[in-house]
């Protein structure tokens, strides 16, 4: 009976508010509390009306009663923290925020309140951590309630400024140590620092098909790790001349991507079956392309001196890759980190580039490099001329002869199980 009376009083009070009679609504709430002094919804309604009326002390008292009676809802503590903030009671605000986060450590409103309080208190380092927690808990801005976007945007800006200042400080502090080790390979440490302070992203190996554990993901490998590249680069002119003869013949070139119509094309839809990105295959899916091989004997001879992988129906793979003017290959990852990819640039106009992870480079004709294509990478030709690169795969150098033999045998077993050969491609 009492519960029904309270519900009726609540409903009448709500109608009074809607009709612009807050004084009568307050009397009805007081009547409800006379029946049930611990009625949480009524106390919350009184607190919210007190907020709207600028009666912050009354709002705080009502919310203190709510959390004392219940305290199981983050919003109760968040409202109490807001009242304390308005009353400039930082200790009370901090206790209320802590109460909210005890209920739900990931509550976005409470995390925003904590970051704001620490920032107002001038606790820069703690505020940076708190703003970072906001960003970790927040969904993307486009999925966030419009009222919360300014606070999350502010958290982004705060962290960006803080990380920039932190990075600059570390650079100055570490400069003597850098100088002490001048000539050493420090790029891994520098990358770790840049990732820590947000100057670079973390990119990991993400093979689409086959992952080999404990092979360190490396964007571009050190040139000195592959002494056989000397012979590759020495053959540049001969290989380029072979390609130019092939180009004049205008035969053997196919679109790089040839996805069927009934499979997802994702970011490659624009380039699928397009001559803007094409290839002249020398080795494809583990086999020498018989129709093309007679046109490039010197290229094939050079490839014979490279540690080409052997996986039946998959590798080795080698081709002349052609990227037409004003064409961009979108970011993507390769299929297996058991092999690496080698580029020998042959024809490179200005305004061409290549990015692997955080490292962006320009091709230089005759200068080869090796990279891990299971790390996100992309390429572009922003010129009005053709770009041509010889691309081929090699074994990952950290694989032992026994491991290579087992990977080759596994590929044969996979083919035997499925009764078909699967292509890795490049």
Task: Describe the structure in your own words.
The protein has 426 residues and is α+β, with helices and mostly antiparallel strands. The chain has helices spanning 2-18, 22-35, 40-52, 56-69, 74-86, 90-103, 108-120, 124-137, 149-180, 187-196, 229-234, 236-249, 297-304, 401-418, and strands at residues 253-255, 277-284, 287-288, 318-323, 327-332, 339-347, 352-356, 359-361, 369-371, 377-381, 387-395. The chain folds into 2 domains: 2-160, Tetratricopeptide repeat domain (Serine Threonine Protein Phosphatase 5, Tetratricopeptide repeat, Alpha Horseshoe), CATH 1.25.40; 223-418, B-lactam Antibiotic, Isopenicillin N Synthase, Chain (Jelly Rolls). Strands 1, 2, 3, 4, 6, 9 and 11 form a 7-stranded antiparallel beta sheet that branches. Strand 7 (352-356) and strand 8 (359-361) form a beta hairpin. Helix 2 (22-35) packs antiparallel against helix 3 (40-52). The protein is elongated. The mean pLDDT is 91.
């Amino acid at each position: 009976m009492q519960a029904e009376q309270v519900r009726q009083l609540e409903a009448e009070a709500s109608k009074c508010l809607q009709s612009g009679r807050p004084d009568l609504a307050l009397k009805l709430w007081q009547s409800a509390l006379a029946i049930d002094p611990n009625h949480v919804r009524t106390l919350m309604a009184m607190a919210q009306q007190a907020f709207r009326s600028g009666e912050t002390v009354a709002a705080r008292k009502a919310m203190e009663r709510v959390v004392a009676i219940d305290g199981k809802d983050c919003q109760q503590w968040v409202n109490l923290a807001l009242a304390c903030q308005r009353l400039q009671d930082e200790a009370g605000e901090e206790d209320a925020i802590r109460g909210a986060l005890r209920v739900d450590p990931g509550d976005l409103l409470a995390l925003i309140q904590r970051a704001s309080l620490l920032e107002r208190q001038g606790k820069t380092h703690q505020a940076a951590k708190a703003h970072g927690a906001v960003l970790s808990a927040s969904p993307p801005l486009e999925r966030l309630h419009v009222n919360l976007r300014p606070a999350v945007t502010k958290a982004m800006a705060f962290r960006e400024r803080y990380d920039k200042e932190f990075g600059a400080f570390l650079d100055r502090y570490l400069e003597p140590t850098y100088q002490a080790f001048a000539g050493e390979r420090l790029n891994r440490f520098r990358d770790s620092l840049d990732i820590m302070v947000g100057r670079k992203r973390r990119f990991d190996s993400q093979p689409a098909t086959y992952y080999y554990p404990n092979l360190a993901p490396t964007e571009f490998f050190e040139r000195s790790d592959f002494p056989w590249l000397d012979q590759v680069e020495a053959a540049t002119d001969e290989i380029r001349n072979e390609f130019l003869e092939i180009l004049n013949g205008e035969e053997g070139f196919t679109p790089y991507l040839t996805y069927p119509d009934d499979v997802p094309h994702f970011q490659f839809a624009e380039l699928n079956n397009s001559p803007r990105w094409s290839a002249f295959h020398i080795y494809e899916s583990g086999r020498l392309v018989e129709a093309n091989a007679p046109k490039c004997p010197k290229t094939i001879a050079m490839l014979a001196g490279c540690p080409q992988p052997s996986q039946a129906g998959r590798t080795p793979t080698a081709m002349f890759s052609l990227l037409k003017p004003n064409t961009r290959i979108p970011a993507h990852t390769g299929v297996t980190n058991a092999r690496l990819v080698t580029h020998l640039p042959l024809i490179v106009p200005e305004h061409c580039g290549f990015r692997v992870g955080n490292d962006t480079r320009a091709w230089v004709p005759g200068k080869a490099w090796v990279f891990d294509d299971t790390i996100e990478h992309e390429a572009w030709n922003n010129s009005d001329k053709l770009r041509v690169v010889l691309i081929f795969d090699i074994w990952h150098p950290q694989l032992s002869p026994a491991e290579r033999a087992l990977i080759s045998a596994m590929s044969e077993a996979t083919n035997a199980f499925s009764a078909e050969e699967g292509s890795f491609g490049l």
